């Protein structure tokens, strides 16, 4: 029992962490009156219709789909262009290699806010404001410096012997990248893909500025807009249901794959 | 965003050898150009060029009309120095920077030490360590916008979680309008930042403590060191680099804080500028008032603030780490 104070401390923080989340999930099953009168009791009977209302009338379903398309497209694009750029910078010598590498990685230190105004007009002039393609391109471009930074170090650690053998067998440079190096880099690719997925799925500032059309809202943006719009303040239960819909997939994926996800999410700091 | 890493060994991987040198080498350059072009083109259009333009725009009075940007020198910056709302924003960002990283790191370190060294013999992990880690880490996976919406509800004075719990345990007197009282609002926002950040740094520190050889702790225990002493004399010095990285990351979060403030607070940025942050001022000035030149000047100010912070935070550690 000597360990009791320790478990008390750990248990306390576990509760601080979990309680708001459980509270939101519980509230999503309540009626509006229950939420208003007894905010922290269990629902009398689960109200599944809250979820239907959130999904359809509050457009959470549409926002969810938009997020999947935009994040999926951007993730694919950044992994492809970032991966091959990282490989080239890590394993080929040519004039300007260092310069290009630093051109990418130093941009991570610039606050996004600094670029915001010119970025808005660049996207507008290209006719991409409020389009999914515009968001995909900007998301991918903003994720690429980290992708390059992380995979650059990873490609450097891979042995050269297999690539050399492939060259001798007449494999092209592209062939070596796609058939030899990319498969060998899989652990690194998984980590950086998870990291990028979380980062892109959680974007708020970029869609807020570049994606003003409510039909194209991504999930985080749509939910935030709902919670601050005056007209929707009355439908508490629907809002909680929307919040739960937004949290639950992440929660489930995390419980199933937590080791990979923790490794991926901390990829930036524990290299 | 990643800040610190050990320098990569140069000359580790030579270019792939080629049997017939000249022909292969030329094809190699073709490959290099083809492989780098897509990433470079996107980077120049959406990153390099906007950043470069921002510096120029900050010296103009541009309000969005094509071709009507007059060069005004440093006028925008002079106005900024007298803009009381922006000065409030700077003050609030600095307060966040001063308190939030320290609180997050302290709690993270405490929890990590408990988990890794809290076992009954004083040097092994505590029972249920994995469970605690999983729970603590979860907020890190939620979008900051989702976190903001969640806590916006939780702080609601009438039917929110916080006041609900306070009333339930008989502490009605402590119930407050958390986001509506000027003296509380910024701390309410700060608490959310700590809440969502602790788990991530706990996992980082926990992994680092796990990497410290157990013999060191055993030797200290034999010499009669208390848990407190081993923490100050062994764990903390060996985690110096990790703590520094955490401080830099968290500092960048503190200098941002936009999403939480914009979604959660009244105004947003209120009450009466109590939660105003630089990013919010910039966003409002640009996309609500259309003063793009002035907004760019705010961006430049934010940039130099971040730069100064990073240089100070990394000071004295040049030998062992390098930027990027």
From TrEMBL, chain A:
InterPro entries: MetI-like (IPR000515), MetI-like_sf (IPR035906). It is found in: Cell membrane. GO terms for cellular component: plasma membrane. One of its GO terms (biological process) is transmembrane transport. It is a multi-pass membrane protein. Keywords: Cell membrane, Membrane, Transmembrane, Transmembrane helix, Transport. Residues 64-257 form the ABC transmembrane type-1 domain. The chain crosses the membrane at residues 63-87, 99-121, 133-155, 176-201, 236-257. Belongs to the binding-protein-dependent transport system permease family. PANTHER family: ABC TRANSPORTER PERMEASE PROTEIN MG189-RELATED, ABC TRANSPORTER PERMEASE PROTEIN MG189-RELATED-RELATED. This is Sugar ABC transporter permease. The lineage of its organism: Bacteria, Bacillati, Actinomycetota, Actinomycetes, Pseudonocardiales.
């Amino acid at each position: 029992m000597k360990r009791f104070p320790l478990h008390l401390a750990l248990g306390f923080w576990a509760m601080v962490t979990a309680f708001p989340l459980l509270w939101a999930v519980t509230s999503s099953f309540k009626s509006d009156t229950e939420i208003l009168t007894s905010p922290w009791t269990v629902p009398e009977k689960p109200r599944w219709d809250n979820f239907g209302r959130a999904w359809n009338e509050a457009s959470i379903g549409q926002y969810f789909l938009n997020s999947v398309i935009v994040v999926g497209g951007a993730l694919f694009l950044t992994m492809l262009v970032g991966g091959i750029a990282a490989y080239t910078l890590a394993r080929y010598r040519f004039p300007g290699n260092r310069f290009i590498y630093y051109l990418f990685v130093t941009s991570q230190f610039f606050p996004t806010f600094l670029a915001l105004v010119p970025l808005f007009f660049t996207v507008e002039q290209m006719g991409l404001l409020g389009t999914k393609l515009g968001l995909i391109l900007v998301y991918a471009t903003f994720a690429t410096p980290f992708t390059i930074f992380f995979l650059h170090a990873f490609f450097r650690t891979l042995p050269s012997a297999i690539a050399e053998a492939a060259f001798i067998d007449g494999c092209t440079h592209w062939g070596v990248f796609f058939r030899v190096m990319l498969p060998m880099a899989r652990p690194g690719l998984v980590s950086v893909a998870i990291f990028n997925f979380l980062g892109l799925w959680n974007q708020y500032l970029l869609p807020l500025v570049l994606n003003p059309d409510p039909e194209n809202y991504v999930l985080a943006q749509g939910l935030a807009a709902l919670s601050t719009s005056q007209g929707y303040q009355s439908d508490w239960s629907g809002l909680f249901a929307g919040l739960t819909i937004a949290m639950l997939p992440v929660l489930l994926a995390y419980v199933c794959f937590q080791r990979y996800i923790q490794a991926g999410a901390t990829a930036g700091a524990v290299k | 965003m990643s800040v610190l890493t050990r320098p990569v060994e140069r000359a580790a991987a030579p270019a792939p050898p080629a049997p017939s040198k000249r022909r292969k080498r030329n094809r190699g350059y073709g490959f290099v150009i083809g492989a780098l072009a897509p990433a470079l083109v996107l980077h120049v259009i959406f990153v390099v060029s906007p950043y470069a333009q921002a510096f120029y725009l900050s010296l103009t009075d541009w309000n969005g009309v094509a071709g009507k940007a007059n060069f005004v020198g440093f006028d925008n910056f002079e106005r900024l120095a007298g803009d009381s709302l922006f000065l409030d924003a700077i003050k609030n960002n600095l307060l966040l920077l001063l308190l939030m990283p320290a609180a997050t790191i302290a709690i993270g370190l405490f929890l990590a030490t408990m988990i890794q060294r809290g076992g009954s013999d004083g040097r092994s992990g505590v029972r249920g360590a994995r469970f605690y880690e999983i729970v603590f880490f979860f907020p890190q996976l939620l979008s900051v916008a989702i976190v903001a919406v969640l806590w916006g509800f939780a702080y609601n004075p009438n039917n929110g979680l916080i006041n609900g719990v306070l009333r339930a345990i008989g502490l009605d007197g402590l119930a407050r309008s958390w986001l509506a009282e000027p003296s509380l609002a910024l701390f309410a926002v700060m608490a959310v930042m700590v809440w969502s950040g602790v788990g991530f740094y706990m996992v980082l520190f926990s992994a680092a403590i796990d990497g410290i050889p157990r013999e060191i702790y055993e030797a200290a225990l034999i010499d009669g060191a208390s848990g407190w002493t081993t923490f100050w004399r062994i764990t903390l010095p060996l985690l110096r680099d990790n703590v520094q990285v955490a401080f830099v990351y968290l500092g960048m979060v503190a200098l941002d804080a936009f999403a939480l403030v914009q979604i959660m607070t009244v105004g947003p940025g209120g009450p009466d500028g109590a939660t105003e942050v630089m990013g919010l001022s910039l966003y409002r000035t640009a996309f609500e008032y259309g003063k793009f030149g002035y907004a760019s000047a705010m961006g430049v100010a934010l940039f130099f603030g971040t730069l100064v912070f990073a240089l100070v935070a990394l000071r004295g550690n040049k030998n062992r780490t390098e930027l990027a």
